Amino acid sequence: MLGAARMDEWIDYYDSTHTIYASKLHRDLHFKLIARDIIGYIASPDAVVLDYACGEALSAASVADACGKLYLAEPAPGVRGRLIARFAPNTKIRVRSLEDLTRMAETSVDLVVMNSVAQYMTAEELDSAFAVIRRLLKPNGRLVLGDILRPEVGMLRDVLALLKFARSHGFLKDALYGLASTALSDYRQLRTRVGLQRYSEREMIDKLAAAGFAASRAHQNVGHNPWRMTFVARHAFQRN
């Protein structure tokens, strides 16, 4: 059974010294690809964008260049400190905690992106996040919920997707070594003990509907893994 404090355990992990990327090239390509996909959802150069639980967000400056203002909301205090230091000179980027989001003005955000986050949350934690996001979104705003794990797709598909990505970008040897290291890592132990949350397409659409959103699955996932899902949601009174 998934623990009620599940997200807290993952926050502690990502706030520690860890090695989830096979190499610096892998890490940099990962964030560049995520930024490219986020930019594809920005409808206006004046848009206000929120990246919910953004992680290191190394390519956030590219996203900021494509919008009016970018909020990076990150729960891990150490990561948040690095974000503040990294992007302090960029007047279009503001770093916030998740708690800060509850104090932001209602209907003030055009686009919220929550990518590769839902799997680390309990169903109840995700519902709470949806409530905050729905309050922040403008009437015609959109939520992009990316990298959702499917119940019928196991770790082997993730491995194959990584190896294909690595081969096409020149870090296959590093990826193979990284996979071997991951098998013995704290990440693997935590994943085995705590687990990751998975949703079918229907389950996620229904969950978003219960939170007040009308949603549909996007044709392509955010990021490199085609076996995971991305959903685009709006306020339920808006057409998708």
Topology record:
Elements: H1 6-14, H2 24-39, E1 48-52, H3 60-65, E2 69-73, H4 77-87, E3 93-96, H5 98-101, E4 109-115, H6 123-136, E5 137-148, H7 155-169, H8 172-182, H9 186-194, H10 201-210, E6 213-217, E7 229-235
Q: Which labels suit this protein?
A:
single chain; 240 residues; alpha/beta; Rossmann fold; 7-stranded mixed beta sheet; 7 strands
Q: How would you explain this protein's 3D organization?
A:
It is a single chain. By secondary structure, the chain is of the alpha/beta class. The chain has one domain: Vaccinia Virus protein VP39 (Rossmann fold). The protein has 10 helices and 7 strands. The chain has helices at 6-14, 24-39, 60-65, 77-87, 98-101, 123-136, 155-169, 172-182, 186-194, 201-210, and strands at 48-52, 69-73, 93-96, 109-115, 137-148, 213-217, 229-235. A 7-stranded mixed β-sheet has the order 3-2-1-4-5-7-6. Helix 1 (6-14) packs antiparallel against helix 9 (186-194) and helix 7 packs antiparallel against helix 8. The radius of gyration is 17 Å and the shape is globular. The model has no long low-confidence stretch (mean pLDDT 89).
